[in-house]
């Protein structure tokens, strides 16, 4: 066990990875290659066999995470290009639309047909984890966790 931890520590010291720290959201973001020029802070990302892209299906089964420009910790692979910091667990602001109804505090959010933008969930399906605290804004809802 001690040898495993030492090997991981040595790998982190010698690998082409940078680590950054902030305190405006919580969670560890990793650099994910996303070539879409419309990908921005708060966009919902899905994974597929072709790579990572903005979610564009309601109740998308392949939800991966949310782009956050100010994560608590950011692990960046400097060998990759066109990357964005993406949280797959933690607290982040998420872009949302009222396309599926008005969103209120503690409503459950899922993906929508608008690329990278969430909507109110009204049926069972794949969703961002329900928030414990939410602050509604004009174009974003701040989720406590997803």
Question: Could you give a quick summary of the protein structure above?
Answer:
The protein has 146 residues and is mostly beta strands.
Could you walk me through the main structural features you see in this protein, from its secondary elements to its overall organization?
This protein is mostly beta strands and 146 residues long. The chain has a single domain (17-143), classed as Virus Head Decoration Protein, Chain: A (Beta Barrel), CATH 2.40.300. The chain is built from 1 helix and 12 strands. The protein has one helix at 2-14, and strands at residues 17-21, 28-33, 44-48, 51-54, 63-67, 73-77, 83-87, 92-95, 109-111, 118-120, 134-136, 140-143. A 7-stranded mixed sheet has the order 1-6-2-7-5-3-4, with helices on one face. A 3-stranded antiparallel sheet has the order 8-12-11, with no helix packed on it. The chain has a two-stranded antiparallel sheet with strand order 9-10. A hairpin with a 6-residue loop joins strand 9 (109-111) and strand 10. The radius of gyration is 16 Å and the shape is globular. The model is unreliable at 3-13, 18-23 and 138-146 (pLDDT under 50).
Task: Give structural attributes.
146 residues; mainly beta; Virus Head Decoration Protein, Chain: A; three-stranded antiparallel sheet; 1 helix
The total of helices stands at 1
> Would you list the SSEs in sequence order as H and E?
HEEEEEEEEEEEE
Outline, from the CA principal axes?
globular
What's the β-strand tally?
A: 12
Strand order in the sheet with the most strands: 1-6-2-7-5-3-4
The main sheet comes to: 7 strands, mixed
Instruction: Provide the CATH top-level class.
Output: Mainly Beta
- The overall pLDDT, averaged over residues, is 78
The residue ranges in which pLDDT falls below 50 over 5 or more consecutive positions are 3-13, 18-23, 138-146
Helix content: under 10%
Radius of gyration: 16 Å
CATH T-level topology: Virus Head Decoration Protein, Chain: A
Q: How many distinct folded domains?
A: 1
């Amino acid at each position: 066990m001690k040898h495993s931890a030492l090997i991981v520590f040595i790998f982190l010291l010698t690998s082409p990875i940078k680590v950054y720290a902030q305190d405006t959201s919580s969670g560890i973001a990793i650099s994910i290659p996303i070539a879409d020029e419309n990908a921005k802070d708060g966009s919902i990302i899905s994974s597929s066999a072709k790579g990572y892209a903005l979610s564009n299906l309601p109740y998308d089964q392949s939800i991966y995470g949310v782009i956050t420009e100010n994560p608590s910790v950011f692990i960046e692979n400097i060998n990759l290009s066109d990357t964005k910091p993406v949280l797959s667990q933690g607290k982040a602001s998420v872009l949302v639309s009222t396309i599926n109804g008005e969103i209120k505090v503690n409503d459950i959010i899922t993906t929508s047909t608008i690329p990278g933008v969430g909507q109110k969930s009204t049926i069972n399906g794949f969703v961002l984890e329900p928030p414990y605290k939410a602050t509604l804004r004009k174009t974003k809802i701040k989720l406590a966790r997803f």
